Amino acid sequence: MQHLDLQVVRQALKWSVEGQRVWLCTVLFTYGSAPRAPGSLLAVNGQGQWVGSLSGGCVEDDFLERVAAGEFADPVRVVRYGEGDERSNIRLPCGGILDVLVENLAADCDVQAHLRELESALLGQRRLLREVNLETGARHLRDDHSHGPRVERDQAHVQLRVGAAQRLLLAGYSSVAHFCAEFGKGLGFEVILCDPREEALDGAVLDGIEIRRELPSIFIANGGCHADTAVVALTHDPKIDDLAMLEAVRTEAFYIGVMGSRTTSAKRMERLQRVGGLGEAELARIHAPIGLNLGSKTPAEIALAVLADILRVRSGIARESL
């Protein structure tokens, strides 16, 4: 599954290399019923060709008309759709508001080098913080070693987190994993399920989920994780869960968790330390018991607690701040 943002950046790069000016648009802020999340991208060239999405409808049509009319000649501009928008008659459903960063990019080497860096981040090779000066349009990139909101803004600058499509790697199939897969897909994760057990997968129906019939530990060891991956083990089978944990802590995965009671989790941690040779720092990366304490009992409730904890970590929110 190719990340839509990756398609946008690649097409923008292609147009720029061909000598075409490109308008790169980023959703900065949404309020109310706005269909695209902050950080979503759209690119437009001088011929009115475009790729990506801001709203999936009327906003794109209005924006293309304004580009054709030469309205966005400045290096950078923030445009509002919805309430408070005096330029167009576009009104989003339920009083929604959409703020969009519009960058006017010349077809030069600096722009192309910048887009290539974004491409590498979207491929999972690195994670970047992209800063845009709202007065001059100047752009700066630096490595991102933290988690937090995808978009942050003050009066003078916008900071954008750029990385690969968020991946949810399910180590083994179970009833809880099934709901995690469905919830993860609904939240926009690229979901991959690894399980070599034919009997466990017999009768499993997971539309839109990549299923790999191999040990998750092997998939992880072969490069299946990047810094935007959450690894969760939910089978109660040590051959699946423990081996997945041993490999996951050697990666940059931003979330690693395994299901089990406090007693089971304590025994697993002791086993991973004694048999697997993991140190305190590696063990500290493993969320066990997994998920937020929501009083969950059913598989769906447990899966909800797991995804909620993953979103908490991805957003950079400390557990004690909840």
TrEMBL record:
Chain ranges of the XdhC Rossmann domain: 168-310
Domain spans labelled XdhC- CoxI: 18-81
Official protein name in the record: Xanthine dehydrogenase accessory factor
Biological source species: Pseudomonas knackmussii (strain DSM 6978 / CCUG 54928 / LMG 23759 / B13)
